[in-house]
Amino acid sequence: MPSGSSRTAGAPARRSGPRVHAGAWWLWALALGTGATRTTNPLLLALLLTVSGYVVVTCRPRTPSARSYTAFLRLALAVLVIRLFFAVVLGSPIPGTHVLVTLPEVPLPHWAQGIRLGGRVTAEGLLFALYDGLKLAALLICVGAANALAAPARLLKSLPGALYETGVAVVVALTFAPHLVADGRRLRAARRLRGRPDRGVRGLLHVGLPVLEGALERSVALAAAMDARGYGRTAEVAPAVRRTTAALTLGGLLGVCAGTYGLLTAAGGSYGLPVLLAGLGAALGGLWLGGRRSVRTRYRPDTWNARSCLVAASGVAVAALLTLAAARDPEALHPGVVPLVAPGLPLWPAAAVLLGLVPAFVAPTGTAAREEPGPRAREESP
Fold first, then answer.
1. Buried b (16+ CB within 10 A) or exposed e, 184-205
2. Which of 55, 99, 137, 295 is the most buried (most CB within 10 A)?
3. Of 136, 40, 142, nearest to 83 (Cα)?
4. How far is CA 364 from the centre of its chain?
5. pLDDT, average across residues 278-287
6. Of all helices (H) and strands (E), which one includes residue 359?
7. Contact between residue 11 and residue 367 where contact means Cβ atoms under 8 Å apart
8. What is the pTM assigned to this prediction?
9. What is the spatial distance between Cα 80 and Cα 145, in angstroms, rounded to a whole number?
């Protein structure tokens, strides 16, 4: 057995190889989120959350951003609880006959017609709020899955040069929550080692101020690093190129808007798709020309491979099939609450959601990504 091998006999083989492109992971996760917006069926949403959670557990690497998935789960749970709380306190527009409890109703002035505080709480109203809140929670969890599987900083490397500055701002905003989570865990661990309370209101007050101070220090350090690396500086291009870039980008965006409007209306079905494709082509051409103003290079950029295409295609397939199912059988994907009946699980939309499990079988596992040796280790291994 080679001296450099650490795999024990009988251990399961782990998938390794080229990693999946960051854009493929984000496209997969956002496509699952798009599919979640097409249904309020709790069984389909629960299946979609199970699929995304299994892929995250299987494929996420050992990075700080991967630990933010738990924070997104808690945020989704908080959103669901707040939605139910509003349904109880402010009432629901859904009429119901199964009264669970009657709260004291607060009289409101005449200009607040349509709003009530307290009153009857029905099972139909709570169930409608649960379905609606579960859809938003699924969307948040899908965004958390994208953060866990591919750090936003990796995605920044693949953006066109024309979108680099906008991408930096978006990446800084997306990495704010993972950094706060990491700082909070580090400070809570330090307080536990010192024998001080780290839970409750008192622990939150003692941890919140150092976390805020660390966020401010990180902002100052980030601004200094961006200035040292020449952020915001552009190369000189000919005036004709600038005008052509502006015309293509503006015309492309207008074409995309007009084409999308044509696809959504019955009268514009004949011209919607050609105008949309022409607008996308013009916009991509404008972005390519605009990238000539960016004077930067990429260090070890991500490349699209067969695995990346399979991951992205699986998410797009889930979104497309759920959109088609919502158009053909809206009652199955949007179960009613009046009368109060249990929702059913439509078979072929459920099978479409299971296509989101493809990354768990084709992408490298998180353990393989952690154990993959670097270039120097591969050269020195026997």
1. beebbeebeeeeeebeeeebee
2. 55
3. 136
4. 20
5. 79
6. helix 358-362
7. no
8. 0.67
9. 18
